[in-house]
Amino acid sequence: MPNTVIWWSYHRPMLSPAERRERLKEVYREASTCTKCALAQTRTTVVFGSGNADADLMFVGEAPGANEDKQGLPFVGQAGKLLEKLLGEIGLTRGDVFICNTLKCRPPGNRDPHPDEIASCEDYLRRQVELIQPKVICTLGNFATKLLRGDPAGITRVHGQPEARAFGAHSVRLYPIFHPAAALYTPSMLETLRADFARLPDLLALPVPTPAPAAPPPVEMEPVPEPEEDVPEPDAAFPQPVAAPQLGLF
User: Which of 87, 81, 57 is nearest to 197 (CA)?
Assistant: First the structure.
């Protein structure tokens, strides 16, 4: 991705939980009227993210699909249902984690994100991470993995391999796994996803890693086809998870 920089300053302000939520709301309000790229002309709503503002585990996907664009919540389609099921198998719920995407707006037709669109959304993702400061960031699929790792290696090569990364003064474990949509299109992938998810409790139990060397220089990322998140599903709306503490916007 041209001119992409690993921009994480990662200095978490000493804020109370209430103050942190207010800061997240400020970022949300800014994102909700964003016109930095052409997606502002085609979106129905900005899909900022949802979940626990104090989460130790954060999921970063690719982009909203049609259901997300309508409801304003991430991962409410079939892929979201599978994500919730996999979380349940390791004793977690959506209310325990924070979920967002690399893009905050749906690309038309669920096409792959363009480099300029990812660049336009980087600052929103950076501030989300700075305020939530998770111990583990689980990247779902190629685009989130390449962006946060600063490396062109595809998800097939690096999935299930945690690594400590330094972002500014703070270190976090990045844990790439396949996007849940991959298992919807290729059912044999489900066991691979389950195996990668099964490692999450142990990763979360580890202390924050010692700061590692700075992230590598930015690399150019070519679009890599991967399954679209949007697949046929029932019309019933997926209910918003209710668990404290929640961001309270959605």
Answer: 87
For each of the domains in the chain, give its residue range(s) and CATH number, in order of start: 17-205 (3.40.470.10)
Can you say whether residue 168 is alpha, beta or left, with left for phi > 0 and alpha for psi between -120 and 50 degrees? left
* 116-135 pLDDT, tens digit each: 999 999 999 989 988 888 99
Tally Cβ neighbours within 10 Å of residue 246.
18
Burial of 234 (0-12, 13-18, 19+ CB in 10 A): exposed
Q: pLDDT tens digits for 12-26?
A: 457 788 888 899 999
C-alpha R_g of the chain: 16
Beta-sheet strands, E only, within 21-162: 50-51, 57-61, 98-101, 136-140
